[in-house]
Amino acid sequence: MVLWRGRLNFRVYIKNKRHKYGIKLYVLTEPDGLVLNMSVYTGSLDSAGGKGRTKKVVLGLMENHLNCGHSIFMDNFYVSVDLAKELLRKKTYCTGTLRGNRKGNPKEIVNAKLQTGQSLAKYQNGVLVGKWRDKRDVLYLSTEFKNNLVEYENRRGDKITKPLPIL
């Protein structure tokens, strides 16, 4: 979101943001912040609107980078099992946290009750959907990583085991 107080047809208002008015941008970046591709959200004027908008946005941003073996990391707003399968068909790997109410999520993973430190995963056509419990449940999806538990040292020096896609 880029702050913008002027007049625009596609200016967005988000009540809970510090900058309530602005221009919403979709950005594809490298890990160090270099911008590779960018798209402006134009609301009803947008060709990527309607059902499956997030899938259209991700595939639109990645159009010049598909079929190259790249890996992308996404926020839970964009991640879905359908998108992961589509990207895998186009030789692009993805990893990210997953919302529990997404269509296509395996019910046995979403509804599973776990103890702290436990992990549960299911593989479907090369897509890993997993759940891990730390202080709260975390759902995640990956087409690149296996569900191996890896030991990790936090800021306080405590050793914690986390699934590889989370780490």
Please outline what is shown here.
It contains three helices and twelve strands. It has 167 residues and is mostly beta strands. It has a domain at 68-163.
Comma- or semicolon-separated keywords:
about 170 residues; about 15% helix; three-stranded antiparallel sheet; 3 helices; mainly beta; 12 strands
Describe this structure in words.
This protein has 167 residues and is mainly β. The chain has a domain of 96 residues. Helix content is 13%, strand content 34%. It is built from three helices and twelve strands. A five-stranded mixed sheet has the order 6-7-10-9-8. It is globular, with a radius of gyration of 18 Å. It holds the Pfam family DDE_Tnp_1_7. This is PiggyBac transposable element-derived protein domain-containing protein. InterPro entries: PGBD.
